[in-house]
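Q: Could you predict the 3D structure of TVP38/TMEM64 family membrane protein?
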Amino acid sequence: MANLISSLSLYLQAAGGVGAVLFFAVFVAATLLFFPASLLTALSGWLFGATGGTLIALLAGITSSLLAFGLARSRLFPHVAKGAVRSTNLSRVLSLAQHNGIVLVLLLRLSSVVPFAPLNYGLGASGMHFKKYLAATMPGLIPGTFIYASAGATVSDVGVLARGDFSPLEMMQNTGVLTGAAVAALGLVLLYLLQRCIRRKMGI
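A: Sure. Here are the predicted structure tokens for TVP38/TMEM64 family membrane protein:
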């Protein structure tokens, strides 16, 4: 699998605009199938740079979020929706989301307490209003997307991402992007602290 991801990544990087479109499609399809969005976002940064990677991953992430929400709401995939809400932590989060709406979902997006795909499907199955979901999702995805894409842009070997060995510490090894790496590292620390805070408040 790692070799396949590495080969595909190198092809997409050499394909220019076509590669960006293909990556967008792969990102959306993969995250709908529960592939980690953080890893794909870091890969986007490696492929297209911090700025381009952020924009592509953000558009793909929003698209995937809206599709998952719609699929769960339409009950086209009821088993997926049921599987998403089977998690004790997610069930508790969804219960709170019905009362706190936009603010809670925004915090969940910022902190990544609940994985990307289960949260999307779960919120769709929860009965949350679409406008509230959209209002919290769009701004909530921006910081994390920028941080992971910026971190991915500093990784020298795509094999690190393909093997799942990516660590925020890797980005500090590239002195040519020290400022950007420091900003990304600070962002990761802030996301970690926010995640701990939300977990403590929700008791999860």
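Q: Anything worth pointing out?
A: Confidence is low (pLDDT under 50) at residues 172-179.
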